[in-house]
Amino acid sequence: MSTQTKDRPEIAPDETTEDDRPKFFHYVKKNKITESAVMGTHVVALCGEVFPVTKSAKPGSPVCPDCKKVYEGLKKGD
Fold first, then answer.
1. Residue-by-residue DSSP string for the chain
2. pLDDT tens, residue by residue, 29-71
3. Which residues contact 60 (CB under 8 A, 6 or more apart)?
4. Facing residues of 50 across strands?
5. What Rg do the C-alpha atoms of the chain give, in angstroms?
6. How confident is the model at residue 22 (pLDDT cuts 50, 70, 90)?
7. How far apart are CA 65 and CA 9, in angstroms?
8. Separation of alpha carbons 30 and 9, rounded Å
9. Are the CB atoms for 45 and 67 separated by under 8 Å?
10. What is the pTM of this model?
11. CA dihedral of 70, 11, 18, 60, whole degrees rounded to 10
């Protein structure tokens, strides 16, 4: 029997902290969050970042400054 080792993909150092938590969370469309978490599809954040949803933000979690800037510039109902 042979054992194979899978390589872990590289993670950008500015995207996570030392304990594997994201450095900040992004704004994405609500209806895409569950689909991404269950199906593994990728979402597009307001800042343009594309990624699968793997973690849920808690109240007070740090927010991506670019997403926040775009969100604040949207009109109500956009």
1. -----PPPPP--TTTB-TTS-BSSB----HHHHHHHHHH--EEE-TTS-EEE----PPTT--B-HHHHHHHHHSPTT-
2. 988 998 998 999 999 999 999 999 988 888 888 999 999 999 9
3. none
4. 44
5. 15
6. low
7. 25
8. 27
9. yes
10. 0.64
11. 20
Place of tokens 């793997």: 54
Strand partners, 44: 50
